[in-house]
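Appendix C reproduces, verbatim, an entry submitted by the partner laboratory led by Prof. M.T., so that reviewers can inspect both the input and the predicted structure.
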Amino acid sequence: MMTIFKVLFIILIIFFIQIFYKWLKYFYIIKKIPKSSLKISFKTLWELAGGDTKKLFDKFVKNLDSDGLKRVHFGPFLFINVASPEDLQLILNSKCCLPKDHPTNNFLKVPQGLLSCSIDKWYLHRKIMNPYFGLQYLHTIIPIMNRKVKSLMENLNKMEGKGEFNIFNDLSLLAIDNILTAMDLDLDVQKNKEKYSEIFLKNFKICNEVVIERHVKFWLHPEFIFNQTNLNEKITNAVSEISKETTLKIMQQIRENQKNSNTFVQALMDPKNNLTDEEIHDEICTIILTATDTSAVTASSVILLLAMHKEIQNKVFNELKQVLGNSTEKLTLDMEMLNKLNYLEMVIKETLRLMPIGVSPVKVNKEEIISSEGYVIPAESTLLLSVYAIHRSKTIWGENANEFEPERFSNERFKKIHPYAFIPFLKGPRMCIGWRYSMILIKTLLANILLKYEIDTNLKFHELEFETCPILKVCQGYLVSIKERK
């Protein structure tokens, strides 16, 4: 009996020695990577756990290094901050960084969707869905965008001349209305504003609040701990409410052959692909949640920045007049028209540079990586992709990197910039699947709004305060007033 205990004891000792040796080797290698001047103490980490997302941005995101590779200590946690275009290109195209194994990637509770599923499932799902987010398919849903933007304009007409309002709510309803109709579920969300604001905006807000709280309270990262809290019930119920009104109806009408259309949902449900109901459900939910936030926040940010910069707003208006004419009454956009709006596209890109949706996405490398400067990044390191920092790097964008200057995206100037210095939707195999869809929708709604209305705001660019987690938003809200052009 004693012999068995001795053997077990020796095995246990060997096991712990191996773990200790592994960590000793890890820290010996990682110590060669330069240390960041930014350090978040245990005291600050505890303060951030209170859920102040503005403080998280001000103390952490805003101060991340904007060049090279640095190790950052975040209380007891160690991150590798990646802020060079060369290293970002290396990591975003590396097969060992394709899996999204960091726990934060499943905070939305849709584990079988593109954001969270295993790499094998991701390959299959992405292959099925890719054709429906390419230009050839997207031009077929521009008529839907035109129709839904008309509904937006009807709602905005009621706000004309009534002072400042938060345009984000109206743009969120447009985004959800459009993506659902593109999936053949036309609920007329914007025409039933009161009903669907309660269902969608309220539950979207709950999802964001829970994700935020889970991000900052690091002890809630493990799934088995989070599942014991009331936060798990809150986000599960919120996703369920959204799903009941959208995802389940979409799946049901396809099953009952009420609709048999050419959408990515129909493709996912094709029996030959052998996807489970949970996989299909989570993919639809993922697209609804991400497409709504990405489009609404970006469009709101563009409108706010144009309200602050009247000269640039006038340049956009002049381009719209030249390409589209003066009236929005019978305006019907197509891909050819949208492609001619070059300056508007520069404005959108400059907004995404200054106010990217994801400020510092997290990845975990499954294998060792050698950086562009020759540093070894050990396997299983937590990598912070410093999008916000590199987008505002003075080394890359010049001394006026923090200023709003759309001309920096002219062909002549932008061709001198490294392609991985501007990654609002990331790049590489895991680039956001819906980035083209989002750009087309944003262009369509902006063309209509800016052709009809002059936009103003009392907010000042350098007074803007940001909060982050999971995405970058303006703390003050997207407060603008609109006045019909004469």
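Residues 277-308 form the longest helix (32 residues). Additional entries are available on request from the coordinating office.
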